[in-house]
Design a protein that fits this description.
There is one protein chain. The chain is an alpha/beta fold. It has 3 domains: about 280 residues, Alpha-Beta Complex (2-enoyl-CoA Hydratase, Chain A, domain 1), CATH 3.90.226.10; about 180 residues, NAD(P)-binding Rossmann-like Domain (Rossmann fold, 3-Layer(aba) Sandwich); about 180 residues, N-(1-d-carboxylethyl)-l-norvaline Dehydrogenase, domain 2. The chain is about 50% helix and about 10% strand. The strands form 4 sheets. The chain has an 8-stranded mixed beta sheet, with helices on both faces. α10 packs antiparallel against α11 and α11 runs antiparallel to α12. The radius of gyration is 29 Å and the shape is globular. The protein starts with a strand and ends in a 7-residue tail after the last helix. The mean pLDDT is about 95.
Length: about 725
């Protein structure tokens, strides 16, 4: 044994080959501080052993190395900037020490080699992958860039253009694509990886492969003349500007760093990378995106733990109510291998539901994500029927009929009388109280909410809503079923609007008050999309939701929480609804929708909407960008805080992920609680107090005031 640590070891084998094997405690290998320290100790041991003629790096697990240990980042990035810079510089030097070993090195890549894992492979002279391998740099999704030499080595291996595309998009490459672009030297079957890597390394040891030349290329300046460099980096900068926009600094910093380092050797280039990495670690976008990653891991971990405790095995679904939503839910189960009965009382609705599933599959085929066999299997998993008895064997019933409590209650009772005594029954309601609907059932303990978001196949979130009578066993089984459907479940307690809609409608109310006070709805949309970062501004989103749906939901919220969500006099939503301007449903709402001269969908601010608001609101005037943001976001933030304080949602992390997955909250802001904390609780309190006279939705709770005064955090 040359070296033995807790996460890796170095063993001498035949032919003078030392095998450096990563095998950390746990299910995957990752670069935490312990592993980095052990790697440097291993480097020293290899360097001091004159019997070693070459080094083969591999993993004892099903994947090579999945990257750095992101759980260490929060504490690390909170250190003073010089300390963070010292850490990343020292860490990247460990990879340099490995690269500088006096013998040839090869990496045998199986499964994922991402982030630091891919940087480890790039520090080797040669790389051989098996058919399961995927390599790449996903750091951009964390608001970061590679920090252990990736921005230096990859451009010198595959060229600056390719490298910047890899890094700025964060998309991993499978083995054959990585081979075609020159990032690896070969792809073999999994069972041949180890022996293939040994054979290639022996060729290098025997002088048949020029490993020294490959190594020197990684240490030298980029081989670009002045004109080539200008063209390459200007093209990359333009691509990043178009795709990433101004809210995500990481891809811009990557282009800038690689360009600055183009004429430098390894050491100077690494210094520039270290500085760029640290600069990004201080940005709000990085803090938000790292926060999202950690919140996502927490939410998924909680879901998996609940699912493991499930005693009820769900083998068959039944969806009651077809149409677009029912068809989407049926598709989601069917595509994931769950036989699903889709029942309705009208054949046209069944046809619409099947058409919805088919349409999703056809689009998947056009994009190469679905083949003919998958399409056939999925459609065969859906059984459309008018016969209620067809649901008798369902383990999980999902009601998805019209959003009317009396209709839903009748359908749920009918379902309970048809299925087995231990079948679980859910309602895909977006606003109606689960406790109210449970009154129609004999066994409310097996009933809960299962709120999908539209379009079902695209939106990751499912709110699992616990009623006061819902059993733990029911929640566990529904969480398990949700995960099997490929969705992220977040368990919330029953209240008007549950979590997502409860925080959304104060946001809409803040928007309505602005329009009544004379703001141009197009100006609000522009600010909330371009500056704040929402995928749609509130007026556009209301058009997509539909004025009839929004008006109904606002009524439910008003009845449920009258002290804060009373109906607004001259609400623009109500005015549009009363004028039969329903939004995209009938091509007229805040905007008019149609087809332009080139045959593309068009969206034009509606003169009719302006005329309607002019006679019911204040004189038209301009509002400052920050005031627009404050007046629509404070109500949402306040209601999210109340949901947490009341125990509607279990944690700030879950609330953040619910809004990210259910509403498209801007990822670079990290979620509603991360947004509040980035602003600073004391600053948020002061801002809310500034607008408190506008009404109860702007008035903060005593809880947040106390937290601000005590300098506490929602993520402690």
């Amino acid at each position: 044994m040359v070296y033995e640590g807790k996460s890796l070891s170095v063993t001498m084998t035949d032919g003078g080959i030392a095998e450096l094997v990563f095998d950390a405690p746990g299910s995957v290998n990752k670069f935490d501080q312990q592993t980095i320290s052990e790697l440097d100790q291993a480097n020293a041991a290899i360097k001091d052993n004159s019997n070693i003629k070459g080094v083969l790096v591999r993993s004892a697990k099903s994947s090579f190395i999945v990257g750095a240990d992101i759980t260490e980042f929060t504490d690390l990035f909170s250190l003073p900037e010089p300390e963070v810079l010292a850490w990343v510089a020292k860490t990247s030097q460990v990879f340099d020490h490995f690269e500088d070993l006096p013998v040839p090195t090869i990496c045998a890549i199986n499964g994922f080699a991402l982030g630091g894992g891919f940087e480890m492979s790039l520090a080797c002279d040669l790389r051989l992958a098996d058919e399961t391998a995927q390599v790449g740099f996903p750091e951009v999704s964390l608001g970061l860039m590679p920090g252990f030499g990736g921005t230096v080595r990859l451009p010198r291996v595959i060229g600056a253009d390719n490298a910047l595309q890899w890094m700025t998009t964060g998309k991993p490459r499978k083995g054959q694509q990585a081979l075609a672009e020159g990032a690896i030297q070969g792809v073999v079957a999994a069972q041949q990886l180890h022996e293939g890597a040994r054979t290639m390394l022996l060729s290098a040891i025997n002088g048949k492969l020029d490993w020294q030349g490959r190594r020197e290329q990684k240490k030298a300046p980029l081989k670009l003349n002045k004109n080539e460099a200008t063209m390459s980096f200007s093209t990359a900068a333009a691509m990043v500007a178009a795709q990433a926009g101004r809210h995500y600094p990481a891809p811009h910093k990557m282009v800038e760093t690689v360009q600055k380092a183009a004429r430098s050797g390894r050491n100077e280039a690494l210094k520039l990378e270290n500085e760029g990495f640290v600069a990004l670690s201080r940005t709000n976008a990085c803090k938000a995106q790292v926060g999202i990653f950690l919140a996502d891991q927490a939410v998924k971990g909680k879901g998996k733990k609940l699912a493991k405790s499930a005693a009820r095995v769900i083998r068959q679904h039944a969806v009651l109510g077809a149409g677009i939503m029912g068809g989407g839910i049926a598709y989601q189960g069917a595509i994931n291998g769950v036989p699903t009965v889709m029942r309705d009382i009208a054949q046209p609705a069944l046809d619409l539901g099947l058409n919805e599933a088919s349409k999703i599959l056809v689009k998947g085929m056009e994009r190469g994500k679905v083949d003919a066999k998958k399409m056939a299997t999925t459609l065969n998993n859906i059984t459309p029927t008018l016969d209620l008895k067809a649901i008798a064997n369902a383990d999980l019933v999902i009601e998805a009929v019209v959003e009317n409590p009396k209709v839903k209650a009748a359908v749920l009772k009918e379902a309970e009388d048809t299925v087995s005594e231990d079948a679980i029954i859910c309602s895909n309601t977006s606003t109606i109280s689960i406790d109210l609907l449970a009154e129609s059932l004999r066994k409310p303990e097996r009933f809960c909410g299962m709120h999908f978001f539209n379009p079902v196949h695209k939106m990751p979130l499912v709110e699992v809503i616990r009623g006061k009578a819902t059993s733990d066993a029911t929640i566990a089984a529904v969480v398990s079923a949700t995960l099997k459907m490929g969705k992220t479940p977040i368990v919330v307690n029953d209240c008007p609007g549950f979590l997502v809609n409860r925080v959304l409608f104060p946001y809409f109310a803040g928007f309505s008050k602005l329009v009544i006070d004379g703001a141009d709805f197009t100006a609000i949309d522009k600010v909330m999309e371009k500056v704040f970062g929402w995928p749609m501004g509130p007026a556009y989103l209301l058009d997509v939701v539909g004025m009839d749906t929004a008006e109904h939901a606002a009524g439910v919220m008003s009845n449920g929480i009258p002290q804060r969500m009373q109906k607004i006099d001259n609400d623009p939503v109500t005015l549009l609804y009363s004028s039969s301007r329903l939004g995209q449903k009938n091509a007229k709402g805040f905007y008019n929708y149609g087809i332009d001269k080139r045959g593309r969908p068009s969206k034009v601010p509606a003169d009719e909407a302006y005329a309607l608001f002019a006679s019911h609101g204040g004189a038209k005037r301009e509002f400052d960008t920050q005031e627009i943001i404050a007046r629509v976001m404070i109500p949402m933030a306040n209601e999210a805080i109340r949901c947490l304080e009341e125990g509607i949602v279990g944690s700030a992390a879950e609330a953040d992920m619910a809004l990210l997955y259910g509403l498209g909250f801007p990822p670079f802001r990290g979620g509603i609680f991360r947004y509040i904390e980035t602003m600073g609780l004391a600053n948020f309190v002061a801002l809310a107090d500034k607008y408190a006279s506008l009404g109860p939705i702007y008035q903060i709770s005593d809880g947040v005031r106390e937290m601000a005064a005590s300098n506490k955090s929602y993520f402690a």
